[in-house]
Amino acid sequence: MIPEPALLQIRGLSKSFPVPDGGSRTIIDIPEFSLGPGEHLALRGESGSGKTTFLNLIAGILSPDEGSILVDGSDMAAMGEHRRDRLRAASIGYIFQTFNLLQGYTCLENVLLGMTFGGHADRPRALALLERVGLSSRLGHRPRQLSSGQQQRVAVARALAKHPKLVLADEPTGNLDRRNSREALALIRETCRESGAALLLVSHDPEVLGAFPNVRDFAELNLSLKEASS
Amino acid sequence: MTLLLIVRRSLRQHALSTVITALSIALAGGLLMSVWVVKEQSQRTFTQVNTGFDAVLGARGSKLQLVLNAIFHLEASPGNLAASDYEYIRHHPAVKLAVPIAVGDNLRGFRIVGTLPELFTAVEYAPGRHFALSQGRLFNPSEKEAVIGSFAARRLGLKVGDSFHPFHGLVYDAANQHPEMYVVTGVLAPSNTPADKVVWIPLHGLQTMSGHDPRAATELSAVLVQLRSPSAGFMLDIMYNKQGNRLTFAYPIGAIMAELFQKISWFDKVLSLVAYLVALVSAAGVLVAIYNSMASRRRDIAILRALGAGRLFLFTAIVLEATLIGAIGMLLAFGAYAAIVSSVAVVIQAQTGVLLETFAYSPVMLWAPLGMIALCGLSGLLPAWKAYQTDVAEHLAPIS
Fold it and tell me: Is B345 contained in some domain?
């Protein structure tokens, strides 16, 4: 049997940032990392450990100093910014801790905008997704008219609207209470499963991590953290 | 589609600054168009208005004063000329028609001009147009009767059958009322010429008004002259102005008025410069308004970038937003233009009787809006560049 190629394949990834004394500090140093199609993985990591930077690198929001980031066979790290934007728009859904919804737009428009840059705004799908996340009666509401839990549900619908192959979730329950946190997490996992999307979630919350059968320590993955602690 | 949605929402999110900026563009654009149209139209109109005459003969003095007094019914008369001078030019073979006028009285500030009925019957004040009466008939030259210009009739509230006492002098003074009583026999239809603001009475009536010097009872203020050919004008110009030193022959009328505009062209330039500067400042206002809102826009820009929007897309959105503010402003500018220019036209008509065609097409109505919109688009480049450079990762970071 031929093994299925990884959806996300990272090799020799490093990223440094300048520090005030004039030098630079390596935040990411990951020799190898992969995620299969449809796989759900949670990364455990403390605040400030570089988890968000890691996701931003995968999403092509940041470009690495070295290494390759193959997303569905295309090397994000070797692309120009325009192509990275296109790949992110087409293949990656991103869920943020602070939801990052556009305040001037309705729930429906937020979801439609999530699709627009990746291809076309599929209104029936946006409506179906909002119904799926229980917000069919809030289509015309603006984010500030919704509770935190509802806002995160819009963000989930937006991330999944364009049929991404990979969903990145950065502390997606960090701003929610326990009940909303559990609901949001279940929703993210279920909707990713339903659409066949791989899910890479980073969190430091044991309850969130406990919901995943597959959890890895970001500190083991990221050599720069080992060097810093040794 | 998405671009327009984003621009529309951004305009709405920053509604107050959008409205204020668009209004400042509207005022600037309206002012620019008004200055231009008033300048253009007043130059064109005042150099073309001659009420059907080629030249004016009057006492020795300034040609411009003579034209302003005899044609536009402004300024004081430079002096009188003898009836014999009128008779001489009337019979000159180069002259087709000569109509005398006498001034010196007013009716509550509106100038009373004495003349002959030929002014209304034999003269085309503009090609193919004779003075017409909207009410009544012309005055009888031997009676105390008057024909009122349309604007003066409206302002004075006079109609056929009404009567009035003239007042001595060109400036109204209630103490200087003449005892003579004149009856209005006709009201002129609007001609949009200085004749509209004049109270016309028979020449003899003005010359012999009680209180006027009886020795000057046959004298005239000016003679309006129609020539048989343009060369005749140059001949009479040499005869009166160069060879003679007693009278002034103002010819051609249009060129004399053009000289006036030439003399005050610096004022036009200053006015235009001010209008341009106002336009520039308003366009800079677009820049400032968008630039100042960049701090609050950065997060939205970062989110849109995270959703896959390219830098160029967002750059275009900001430039388009600035352009749209300019377009909205320039749409409103036509309202500001209408208000400004209508007010100016009323003032000009009250002073000169000439009504500017304020709503006639002028090229400025095309190039000013296009120019302002382009300028606003250009002013969007700097904030657009800031948007282009937005650090996505930094602005996506949790607010806390």
Answer: yes
